[in-house]
Amino acid sequence: MAKKAFALRIDEQMLAQLQSWADAEFRSVNGQIEYLLHQALLQSGRLKAAKLPVEQEANAEAADAKTNYDSGA
Prior knowledge:
Mean pLDDT: 85
Distance between the termini: 39 Å
Strand content: under 5%
Shape: elongated
Helix content: 55-70%
Oligomer: single chain
């Protein structure tokens, strides 16, 4: 997914709090803001949770196993 840059005007005190929070979670401020926005979108139902590649692979293997079982293979 391509990312688009944009300017964000933010209160100095809020930026300082975000920096502190980001530091505590070993993220950049940009990464922290992106994380928080992502969480808010998930919680509001505006973004569906994407499955991790490992989950997708496990689901595909389970479907294949069921197909093979159903066909008698």
